[in-house]
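Minimal example, chain plus phenylalanine.
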Amino acid sequence: MATASRGQWSGKTGFIFAAAGSAIGLGNIWRFPYTAGENGGGAFVLVYLLFVLLIGVPVVLAELSLGRRTERNAVGAFKALFPETKWHWVGGLGVATGFGILAFYSVIAGWTLWYLWEALLGGFSGSISAEQSETMFVSLTSDPLLAIFFTAVFLALTVFVVRGGISKGIERTTKILMPLLLVILILLAIRSVTLEGGMEGLVYLFKPDFSKITFGVIMNAMGQALFSLSLGMGAMITYGSYFPKRENLPQAGAAVALFDTMIALLAGVIIFPAIFAAGVDPDGGPGLVFIVLPTIFGSMPAGSFFAIAFYALLAIAALTSTISLLEVVVAYFVDERDWKRSKAAITMGAICFVIAIPSALAAGGSDFFTNFFGSGIDFLSLQNIIWGNYSLGIGALLLCVFVGWKWGVPKALESLESGGYSMPAGNIWGVLIRYVCPLAVGLVIAFIIITQQYM
Ligand code: PHE
């Protein structure tokens, strides 16, 4: 069987940590808070949670079941089941999306490395005002060489781990560091909610103002749910393909979704009270988290230590996500094109670096990419929307149609239940995958295109 040479997780916990490592990352700590801030707070959060439940969890299970059954990469999984059809193009879209996301994600991940560097130099020891913090942020992101340099370092780290192969590299890193991240986040949350004026932030985050729900908000919430759970581009197909046959897959999948959502909410509980305490505008865009957090460290005992620990762990959380993005691309070249893992990782990492350069220049480094073609939107945000919302949405839609209608719910359930575990509410899952998910995702995308209320 292919399993032995492809590698496998050591067991269920190994898988949960690795898949949670993919899911938990900048999506939770950087993208969720600023997207919530731009989309009206509580109303967005509510729609996001609905999408996690109705679409996120079912699609996680659909991707994992496909990966487990076929033990193949995102493209090979479709080919293994229906070699004569064009369904594997869905996997091809996933590989392209992995590339597209990695090429802007690694820029933001590079910012975290720079903040870690600043923290190590003691940059967050004294109290810092929101204005000072913003100046610092701008000085980094608008420096073209610095931004490109840290993007390169981050991609190099990703290539290094992915070259090492599945269980050795990925599992070992996540198992120790994810729980540590959780501890630091909880401590930061406690500090943040006890800041003066912090409560207002919690109200903003959790009290929905229904008048704020527009198609744009719905589209962003859907994209965020898919992005955060690493769905719609084959990461969970690929990770599911390394899942041992004897373990309980539905439970593991649900645990990953739960963990991921908890961390996003926790990040919100850290950021929003601090936003209100520091008097920052929640609608501050991609720089929001980077600007707000230093104001918390400055007001904490042992702030320097927390800053170092936080940025180190955030960089690692981002790394376990970039690993999964690159892994989708690498697994395709290894399985389908017979490339050596190391050649695939290095070549694809290098190409991705070149594609990432415009995004690295999109926060002030180059006027052209900062205001792309004079459109008022920067290149990085554009990539974030194209790959992170549209492409994941279309990928998830096609995946549901494939699993629900082509491959079929009974076969997918059989894969989910292998190892002798029963899948709770299997019928409901079938209805969600066949009808609810494709209709909901399809309608949201169609409305966005027709009404042009977005972007
Ligand atoms: N889920 C990751 C995060 O939240 C990002 C990601 C998206 C990873 C899609 C893989 C696939 O940071």
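The mean pLDDT is 92. Residues 12-358+409-422 form a domain with the Hydantoin permease fold (CATH 1.10.4160.10).
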